[in-house]
Every structure is written in C-alpha cells, then in structure tokens.
Fold:
Amino acid sequence: MIEPIHNSVLEQLQQSREQQRFAIRLSFLIGFLMLIGKGYAYLITGSAAILSDAAESVVHVIAVSFAAYSLWLSMRPADESHPYGHEKISFFSAGTEGAMIVIAAFYIIYESIHKWLHGLQLQNLGEGTLFTAAATLINAALGGYLVWQGKKYKSLILTANGKHVLTDSWTSLGVIVGLILVMLTGWLPFDPILAILVALNILWSGGKLIRQSVGGLMDERDPKLEQQLRRALNEETSKRGLDYHEFRSRNTGASVWVDVHLLFPKETTIEQAHWQATEIEGAIKAKMSVPVRFTTHLEPIERHDETHQTLKSEGD
Structure:
C-alpha cells in the first residue's frame, strides 16, 4: 500500500520540478525582452516614469537569474555538508529579490527628483506609451502565471518572482497614467510625480518579500499549514487508537519537515509501532499538496508523562 503512494509522490515531485524550471526560464526570457523594450521607450522619450519602469526590469532580470540558480540548488539532494538539503535557499532568493526591489525603488525616487529639479524634457510620448502598455499586459499575464505555478507547487521562489513581475506591471500601469496625464494637460511634473508614487508602491512590495524571507529563515510558524497537518495527523492516529504529542513543523521553502512523538500501548512491539508509524506518515503525505518529511519518535503511552518529567528534571 505504501509503495504506490511513494511512486505517486515521486512522479508529482518530478512534474513539479519540470514545471518550475519552465516557469523560471519563461520569466527570464520575457524579462529580458521587456528590458530591451522599456530601455528603447526611455531613450526616445526621456521620461522619468519610463526610466523607473526600465529600472524595475533591470532588477527583474538580475533577480530572476538568482532565482533560477536558487531553484536549481533547492532541488539538489542532501549531501555531507548540507545533510538537510538546500531548500532554504528559497528564502534567501525571496529576500534578495525583495532587497533589490527596495534598492530599485530608492533609485527611481532619486532619479525622478533629480530630473524634476534639473528640468523636464519629454518627447515621443505616444510611442513610449504604446511600448509601456504592451509591456504591462505581458507582465501581468506572466506574473499571474508565476504566482499560480508557485502556489500550485508550493514554490516560494516562483511565488516571489511572480509577485515581483506583478509589481512590475503595476509600475508600468502607473507610468502609463502619468504619460497620459502629461499628454492631456501638458503639465510635465505629472511624469516624476507618478514615478515617485510607483516607487513607493514597489518599496512596500519589496519590504513584504524581505519580511517573508526573514520569517522563513527563522522557522516562523505557519498556522494554516500546521492546521492541515494536525487535522490529517488527528485523523490517522484516531483510526488506529493512538495519540501523539511534541508536534512541530517548519517550512523549508519547498517542503515541510515534521517532528512528532507517537504514543503506543506498551504491549506494542517495535516492529508493529514502526509499521503503524510508516502507514501514518504515508497517509498524511498523500493528503498534503506539499512534500512532507517526518521524524517520528515512538513512545509507550503508559507513564510517558512521568518519564518526560524525570528527564527534564535531570536536564535541569
């Protein structure tokens, strides 16, 4: 019974990895093309808002390159120097991407104010707006796809990259509004003002990514995920007349590690307890949409509280 479940999990894992690789390659390709298009739009217009959009694309290309490396590294198996694997790189990737977004936001604000103070000169706004509008539509579709794939395969790397791309599309939308206002009113300061507002928005987005990265690296509790695991664990232990305690879980960015003590009647043999624990683990893994790794400690239910209290007293 366990073997088919195990094979199914492996097949899903392989499919997940292939889809994630495809998504990150697509993100890099489109990001590079967007950078070329936005760079051209800035050269023909001199717009601070379009410059802010192009700067965001530079960040995207660099960030997605690191994300691709992080995705590759996160999929490598555990080795002698990293016995728990390399999945934590996902949080470094998200934090790096967030930090680069923050840096880009400050650069946009600086350039916008600099251009405003030293005189605004805009031209070819109609053509520049069309380039930016096309980039907005493409990035919105790409960002939605990346976030969808990230949530589907529980990939923090893809989710972070998708949110970055969506941020880029909001940046582009703000640029379009600014350019249209300039063309309608002739008032040039609309251009740097919208650029600054867009920068503040992406600053907030980058800050959230950094916060998420720190939480993951510090093994911050995920209440929603823990609730799903406890529900499955309660169901599997109850149907076998067992109990458990000392439950802990942590998210590595690509999988979940669970530590739990399973409590058995004292007449249960080690072999029986082992197989029941294995069945419980396999059943829970089959119910979860994210890979789960278990470390189970087998204990007799009789007098286990007394035993733990004794060990605690000796440790003090």
User: Anything to note?
Assistant: The mean pLDDT is 81. The two ends are 44 Å apart (CA to CA). The first strand starts at residue 243 and ends at 251. Residues 2-45 form the longest helix (44 residues).
